[in-house]
Amino acid sequence: MTAYNWVKGFGLGCAAFAMIAACSPKSETVETTANQAQEDTQKVDERIAESAIIVSDALIRTPLGGKNVTAGYFSLTLGQDDRLLYASTDVAEKIELHTVEMTDGVMQMREMEGVDIKAGQAVVFAPKGEHLMIFGVKPLNEGDIVEVTFGFESGRTATANFTVGMPDVSKGAGHNH
Hints:
Layout: H1 3-23, H2 27-51, E1 53-61, E2 69-78, E3 82-88, E4 94-103, E5 106-111, E6 115-117, E7 123-125, E8 131-135, E9 145-152, E10 157-165
Parallel strand pairs: 1-10
Antiparallel strand pairs: 1-2, 2-7, 2-8, 3-6, 3-9, 4-5, 4-8, 9-10
């Protein structure tokens, strides 16, 4: 076989292969690519959902009678299991995580080391329950917006805007400090 015949045969073989490939249906490749794109989007959505930190109904009680101690209430939902360890703000010296417990028929506040939060389950910090105890607070007026930063055991942090106001006591949510 001469080099010319070999190149000619090789060229015809390549041309035939190219025609077969060009004429074969591409829908399988397109479908695979579309499925892969959908799977990639789902993975991104799952990562976003897992990283979610949602703070809602965020309220800092208007300090009463010029006092520098008040409370904060909110709902917290996470996209992954974590533990809330602390809260801080520039408008107060210190914030503690507190709960209210009944001991011998008397309601008592107790500081908590942290609060375990399960993914997708809202934890409500409300009057007469878990709440933020805010000490050394600067003067605040109803309607002010206060940034509060939360820190988690995972190392994540999140900042939320709290509105200064009075909790809705019509739902039996009164809270006295």
